[in-house]
Amino acid sequence: MPTQEKVTAVEDLKTRFDGVKTVVLTEYRGLTVQELSELRKQLRAVSAQYKVVKNRLARLAIASSALEGLGTHLTGPTAVIFSKEDPVAVAKALHAFARAHQALAIKAGYIEGQMLPPPELKALADLPSREALRAQLVGSIQGVLATLVGLIDAPHRELVYILEQRGAAAAAEAEPKTEAAAKTE
Q: Helix, strand or coil for residue 76?
């Protein structure tokens, strides 16, 4: 590759790495072109890209950046997953594909400022989705609020119950008097 093409390739990689939340290095040896296309499609669905890279150019692109720790994993056939969106969704899509295609090897990852080995990436994939976590949070808040409303409403409810009982007792007392008054007339 001529020098200008290499410079352009490094700049392209730097641009892709800029502002990413998730970067995962994989080894794709043993996957067919069709399987790689399927992986790219699944990753696009979660706003991620999959790109085969030259290790030397990738090392140049991540030099002097937060991603520099990934350089030691840039060996052998390497492809990079880039995403600026939800890291959990990317991890879930990647691990779902890896379960079905044992040839895909996950080397290492960078998630929102932290380097993660493959077992920690798997743990991230096992987390509930962002929407599920939000639903759990809203459900928890609703439960607490319902209890609070019940506690605030309890004294009023008790007062209404007492007034109803007093009203019923007063009506029961007044009834014999009105019957006696009606008989005397």
A: coil
Tell me the two tokens of residue 1.
């590759």
Domain 3-127 has CATH 3.30.70.1730: yes
- pLDDT, one tens digit per residue, over 138-166 is 888 888 888 888 888 888 888 888 888 88
Residue 94's CB is within 10 A of a number of other CB atoms, namely: 27
Long-range CB contacts for residues 72-77, cutoff 8 Å, separation at least 24: 73/25, 73/107, 73/108, 74/25, 76/27, 76/29, 77/27, 77/28, 77/29, 77/52
Q: What is the DSSP letter of 53?
A: E
Tokens 């040839």 found at: 103
Domain ranges of the chain: 3-127, 129-185
Q: Residue 183 — pLDDT band, cuts 50, 70, 90?
A: low
SS3 113: coil
- 65: which DSSP letter? S
Query: How far apart, in whole angstroms, are the C-alpha atoms of residue 173 and residue 156?
Result: 26
Beta bridge mates, 52: 79
What are the tens digits of pLDDT across the range 89-148? 888 899 889 889 888 888 998 888 888 888 888 887 777 767 777 888 888 888 888 888
Mean pLDDT of the chain: 85
